[in-house]
Input
Amino acid sequence: MPTNPNYEEPPEYLDKIGNKVVNAAFAVHTRWGPGLMEHFYKRALKTEIEKNGLKVESEVYLPIDLDGTIVEDSYRIDLLVENEVVVEIKSIEKLLPVHHRQVRTYMRLSNNRLGYLINFNNELIMDGVNRIIMSPYKQS
Output
């Protein structure tokens, strides 16, 4: 259990969406295994999540206000599930801290509390699934 007093688990409905995302990732990895390109896994995961009845947007751009100038294509979320859960997909040898920061930035910019960083280039997909939570800011 986290010891941070500002830590707060996301609502149950978000976890249900997240569980469907993880189950879909398992289904994709079970069928295709590691070693394919990221864009394939993105398309396959989107299709699998949609089979579970969830709305999924792909390649969602996040605009950034740069001193009054909107930069439309600053960041792009791989998948946004139910407009609530950010999913970043990788197919690389090893995840680095920058990949986790990338997801947190996407979550902060899109104002979402739950995200997944999924690296399909693992023998066991459970070694590649990372759940990321952004607790809401609590004022004292």
